[in-house]
Amino acid sequence: MNTQRETRTDGEHHVVILGAGYAGMAAAVQLAARTGKRRDAVRVTVVNAGERFTERMRLHMTAAGRPLDTMSVPEMLEGTGARFTRGWVTAVDAGARTVRIDDERVLSYDTLVYALGGVADTSPVPGADDYAYTLSSAQDARLLADRLKGLGGEDPEGGEDRERGNGTVVVVGTGLTGVESAAEIAERYPRLDVVLLGGEEPGAAMNDKARAHVRAALDRLGVRVSSGVRVAKVLAGSVELEGGESIAADAVLWTGGTRVAPLAAAAGLEVDERGRVVTDQALRSVSHPEVYAVGDAAAIRQGYGVMHGTCQGGMPTGVHAALSIDRVLRGKEPKPFRFGYYHTPVSLGRGDAVVQFTRPDDSPRRICLVGAMAVRYKETVTASPWPTYGRMKKMPASGAFWPRGGRFTRIRGDK
After folding, report:
1. Is residue 232 within a helix (H) or strand (E), and if so which, with residue range?
2. Of residues 397, 398, 388, 299, the one with CA closest to residue 53
3. Distance (Å, rounded) from C-alpha 135 to C-alpha 406?
4. What percent of the chain has pLDDT over 90?
5. Cα–Cα nearest to 269, from 245, 289, 246
6. C-beta of residue 205 within 8 angstroms of C-beta of residue 174
7. How far is CA 370 from the centre of its chain?
8. Of 358, 19, 310, which is closest to residue 300 (Cα–Cα)?
9. Are 259 and 276 in contact (CB under 8 A)?
10. Residues with Cβ < 8 Å from 72, sequence gap 6 or more?
11. Are 22 and 311 spatial neighbours (Cβ–Cβ below 8 Å)?
12. Would you say 261 and 136 are in contact if contact means Cβ atoms under 8 Å apart?
């Protein structure tokens, strides 16, 4: 096998960022903008499987047949000094400080930002990996869209085709992704029978008003909800529940849990039980401090526990990693990362939504938005990352504001 190895420049500090999702892009743009005047000494390389930025918060819409806008990662990086490398990361050698791409090329790094994110975890249930669709990528969402189009008609928004579709779609997982997906599919394809299965009631973490609105919206859209159940097996045309009940399914969407790639563990980085890189308070790997981990790929502890993966938390981790790297390069100590949650926006089709405002530990407050106002709020949140990266290119400090969480995020011993 012929392996291409990059040429290093003496005295140059090379920062390699793996992944151009919400957290990886935040780290790339923020770091490149802050080190731009030192381009002779600092080089930033972003590695991603494709050139297109995926709006993961819209993948449930893609699955229902609504196309995503085209957002180019290389175009966003233009003018920052950061370089883009397209390819799949196939290995990381933390000892040698190298990254292998497509099993053909090797990049050396001085500092690594690990931002490869997570995918749907279909491994615990037999048949889920073989027969269930996921929203792990835009390509996965489009595969489901093709299947739903065949079940629900060629043109689900107009004409007689609305009456042609029939079949059952089972959405596994009553978390936010499952709720959004079930509502979107039911609204887009009203002739399909949509079943939402999971261990908890939809909106279980919300207050009474928000939870009731979620359930009313699902009822209005004709979604059949079955909570308190566990899937035992996924078959070619059905889903089997623990206890023996079988539900016929023409398509199954799996949204029950996420996992991360085994690359970090294989590289020798210390990981948690889910394979996420365990970090210190500055977001550095506790076993390899030259590696920073952000977003879904990181196990980041706050006073309330380990953060869960969302865009609202992912982007700040990327920005903070960039700030930490910049401080270290300037001979300073990085500051601890602190983040408090502030909302949970959930779309319920195109014309309805609910926004649950939260305490920093993600527990629900009494305040929530529903209906048209929540729709506008949710769309503003969903559309915000891309223009935020654009602003950071010119004003990097504009991306460094987020709720720190006060007493909720302090770890014992912190001041």
Report:
1. strand 231-234
2. 388
3. 34
4. 84
5. 289
6. no
7. 24
8. 310
9. no
10. 51, 52, 53
11. yes
12. no
Q: Which residues contact 365 (CB under 8 A, 6 or more apart)?
A: 207, 356, 357, 358, 359
**What digits encode the pLDDT tens for the residues 79-122?**
999 999 999 999 999 999 999 999 999 999 999 999 999 889 99
Contacts of 327 (CB under 8 A, 6+ apart): 333, 334, 335
Q: What is the pLDDT of residues 200-254, one digit of tens each?
A: 999 999 999 999 999 999 999 999 999 999 999 999 999 999 999 999 999 999 9
**Helix, strand or coil for residue 188?**
helix
Amino acid code (one letter) for 112: L
C-alpha span between 257 and 259 (Å, rounded): 7
* Residue 40, pLDDT score: 60
> In terms of Cα–Cα distance, which of 336, 329, 262, 328 is closest to 114?
262
Question: To the nearest 5 percent, what fractions of the chain are helix, strand and coil?
Answer: 35, 25, 40
Q: At what angle do helices 385-394 and 311-329 cross, to 10 degrees?
A: 20
- Whether 108 contacts 97, CB under 8 Å: yes
Looking up tokens 């029950």, which residue turns up?
256
Q: Which amino acid is at 129?
A: D
Bridge partners, residue 18, by sequence: 47, 114
